[in-house]
Specification:
CATH architecture of the largest domain: 2-Layer Sandwich
Distance between the termini: 47 Å
Strand content: 15-25%
Order of helices and strands: HEHEEEEHHH
CATH topology of the largest domain: Double Stranded RNA Binding Domain
Largest sheet: 5 strands, antiparallel
Structural class: alpha+beta
Helix content: 40-55%
Number of helices: 5
Number of strands: 5
Length: about 180
């Protein structure tokens, strides 16, 4: 088989079509995660009541968080926690989250599962696994290969040299303008 721009473009695109679709879907979803976040869904919730310590700084202590987690037999499942203003969020293994207001002690213990396909593609998009980062870097190089070889596929009046460069320039200028305005 002859090594041409067309063959390289076609074969690399065929090889990565699944990842292109997965990253496209999850990228769109991540752009709108404040409105709709289908990575996981709640299958069970429980209302909980925390005992409020006299010293609110106790909520920043990992030991105290583990201590209150024992009430729901989750101390050994503890992963991490975050305190923002009066909102406490505790993360446990197996997609269990506790959200509580530290002024009232009222909270919700939420049990979640990943949404099939969408949740898994979003996981791939967000993961920090070293192997996957390298694979994603190779994917980025493949996307560059697809873009560059695609510029040389069409000949004649609609070629990159005659017409395509104008569209490519317009496509490049738009994000630069957005960066200047909003960054």
């Amino acid at each position: 088989m002859k090594l041409t721009h067309r063959n390289i473009h076609r074969d690399v695109a065929y090889f990565y079509v699944g990842l292109i679709l997965a990253f496209s879907f999850s990228g769109i979803i991540l752009n709108h995660r404040q409105d709709w976040y289908p990575m996981d869904y709640s299958y069970d919730t429980k209302e909980v009541q925390l005992e409020i310590p006299t010293d609110k700084s106790a909520f920043e202590s990992e030991d105290y968080i583990k201590e209150i987690s024992e009430q729901w037999q989750l101390a050994s499942e503890y992963d991490d926690h975050r305190l923002r203003d009066n909102e406490l969020r505790i993360f446990y293994d197996d997609n269990v989250i506790l959200d509580a207001d530290i002024t009232t002690g009222k909270g919700i213990l939420e049990y979640k599962r990943k949404v099939p396909f969408l949740g898994h593609t979003m996981f791939l998009h967000k993961t920090t696994n070293k192997f996957w980062i390298w694979y994603s870097d190779i994917f980025g190089i493949a996307m560059l290969t697809i873009a560059i070889t695609g510029m040389f596929l069409v000949k004649g009046k609609n070629s990159f040299k005659k017409r395509g460069w104008k569209l490519a320039l317009a496509g490049l200028i738009f994000p630069i303008i957005i960066l200047i305005i909003f960054a």
